[in-house]
Batch of 3 targets.
Target 1
Amino acid sequence: MVQEIAPAVFSNAYTPCPPDAQSRAALFQGQSLLVSDDGCEMPLVTELAEGKENLTYLFSIDDVRYYLSSEACQLPGYSALSLFEIRKKAPRKELFAAYTAYHLYRWYSSHRFCGRCGGKTVHDAKLRMLYCPGCGLQIFPTISPAVIIGVTDGERLLLSKYARGSYSHYALLAGFTEIGETVEGTVEREVMEETGLEVENIRYWGSQPWGCDAGVLMGFFCDLKGSDRIHIDRNELSLAEWKHWCDVPDGIDDVSLTSEMMRAFRRKWMQ
Ligand SMILES: [Zn+2]
């Protein structure tokens, strides 16, 4: 999955310090990130023309520290690619760095002003927190919980395709958790809303950070309860159908929890 970058080690401890010669800079324009044409690496801070005072510390991978640059620019040998394009061509470590940097970029750029009083926020010196000097509001990073759902009926798994967006492969059902809801409740609600099916025996499988949606994904398998007849929500899905395990795609990609869960379902029946 995207976060599995061993032997490299990711550290999100907030230890702001000045960049050094091997530090890299995340330069976003909307959902596009400036990465090298060979290898999808972010540029070195030393390659930036502007001063280093506009950099915000993000995280480190091994000894390389990553910083957010507040101003986008162009550099020879680098191109601005969408996260979707980066997903298709970047090595795992570079992809995880891009997704994680995007999550932080989205949070920092959306909280430059206080949502309570409208004052300009400032960066706290010790915590990954933005602070409003005017009213004292403390703003911590926002992570949206969401579920990935493998609905099973014996040797069959429910697969779907999204009605919107650029991802055209088979997927599992998914959805964000609402305020006041348990994640198990999200599983039951999303399956019912998108397919009209009831489920039971909900069991946790695993999770992954998913920075391109500012989220953390939690994967669950569950069993069909009652009728297997699908009533599809056309606003959310273009297709939803039962697939025998031997027809479940193996290896759409090696970065997503969805693909890992599909593979796990196949492996379970193959043995
Ligand atoms: Zn305020």
Note: The CA atoms of residues 32 and 81 lie 5 Å apart.
Target 2
Amino acid sequence: MVKPKAVIWLVRDTIRLADNPALETAVSWAQTAGASVIPLACLEPRRWLDQQFGLPRVGSHWTQFRVESLLDLEVQLSEFGSPLWISSASPDRALDEIAQGFHVVGVVTDLPLATEERIENAQLVSEGYAVRALETDDLFRMAQMPFELDALPESFTRFRKAVEKAPAIRPNAPRPVPTFLSTSEPLWPRPVEWDEAVASLTMASDSRFAGGRRAGLSHWSNYLASGALSTYKATRNAFMGEHVWSSLSPWLAHGCLSVREVWADILAYEARVGANESTYWLRFELLWREYFRWYARATDWTLFRKQGPEGREVPGDFNRDRFVQWRDGLTGSDIVDASMRELKATGWICNRARQLVASHAIYESGLDWRLGAAWFESALVDHDVASNWGNWAYIAGVGADPRGGRVFNLEAQADRYDPEGVYRRRWLS
Ligand SMILES: Cc1cc2nc3c(=O)[nH]c(=O)nc-3n(C[C@H](O)[C@H](O)[C@H](O)COP(=O)(O)OP(=O)(O)OC[C@H]3O[C@@H](n4cnc5c(N)ncnc54)[C@H](O)[C@@H]3O)c2cc1C
């Protein structure tokens, strides 16, 4: 029997149909090959069941957001008559199962950010699958850059200046959803893990974020309508308050929103309402995200070793008592304790809080910085391997910080950014 042909869109951290170069490529590849498109999301065991340093790789906030985002993707796909195939296996195993019933023409997915995804793609290639990996969630494409990946500037400032200076380096305009029809029904039933994760959504969560593209678009349009972007630079270091930051990170980390869409919306806002330091500063922060993405790709496995990409020996251990005190907000430093309690309860803390608690973990609790990064990975709703591990390595002095690490004066920071102690009281009482 001749098997029907299929191109697989392997959904990783880009959970949307719009402005998605991977999906667009899958659709045009399928059209050329006379194949259908199968959208496949794997509940990758390495992520969902795995641990690092004794901590789960994914926690409840991330899982809830991910499941909501995939459910939302199902709704988006249903407009094209397409089901979302969900597997509890790793991509290579899931593809082998699909290959029982289909001739797999090829696989299209995101350009890996870090070592595990790169190995996963290499595994698929070694098994004979044609794999195309695209820059789906980056502002820029490598081909646009004025340097090779192995010559990525060693600091953010040099990277930013290089890309800001070059008129040719502009994010691509966001692309519409490609038209496609795909009705191939999954060859296997829904995994038990998935059903359990969906069922657990009904349980109460303190997270303030709802997963999925529709929730992300609504959040972002409310933020823009509020006008808060015009004062972002002045408010972004606050510990609490409405619209003091953009809170885009969960939707960007799960790929519900495209960073190129956000960039284009900021430019449109500047044209409509007026450009100022604040509107620029949000784009500046998005360049930080961009830098860490290319930095993770350039530094590969060295980003995850204690000496970091810099190969610098640093102190830090895995002392259980000091870790538990830090994790549970019992260090005695009120700004750190408040932040760690907020993190545990909601899966999110602001950038300033992330910097302060990382500084405490490394320089006051004396922990191996990777233990802190692993806890963030487990606790954050917006975990992003490049931003998380890149920022931790930076603060620990083994990453991209030309000053060799950041030690924060916690009391001075608390006095400055939470002068009335409102935030600390909120989480410590
Ligand atoms: C130790 C540590 C760990 C972090 N881990 C993560 C993580 O796992 N996932 C994550 O998305 N961000 C991480 N960040 C970066 C940053 O703290 C968050 O992106 C930001 O707080 C999210 O809130 P926001 O969307 O309101 O940010 P805004 O201030 O509104 O900024 C807008 C966007 O710019 C990007 N951005 C801002 N600051 C940074 C930064 N320092 N590095 C990289 N991108 C940035 C984010 O995409 C963010 O959504 C980490 C920072 C530190 C210091």
Note: The chain has three domains: 1-136, 138-173+212-300, 305-428.
Target 3
Amino acid sequence: MHYRVSFYQGEMDSQPGGYVPSDMAVSLTPFRACMKGTEQAPGRCIALGEDKLCTIYENRPSVCREFPALLEDGSQNPECIRLQAMYGISRK
Ligand code: SF4
């Protein structure tokens, strides 16, 4: 499974009130955009740094804010573990 990191174009900093760096995103439709690198599989988000951390964390799109990296019991979301293994980016 592949995740395209897509979000409402109004979140891009080229729009009033937007905050996601528009040079790191591409338009998909008149209303939707996605992070560069995730347009198609296999894809790695352009904002993912070499240290495996988000380089635009404070300005990441809503879809990233809503994805639960941790479960209610504090354990890592198994989907994160699966994706990290798939892309060889697991943190240790
Ligand atoms: S959290 Fe950051 S690095 Fe991860 S997908 Fe979102 S923008 Fe990209």
Note: Strands lie at 6-8, 25-27, 32-35.
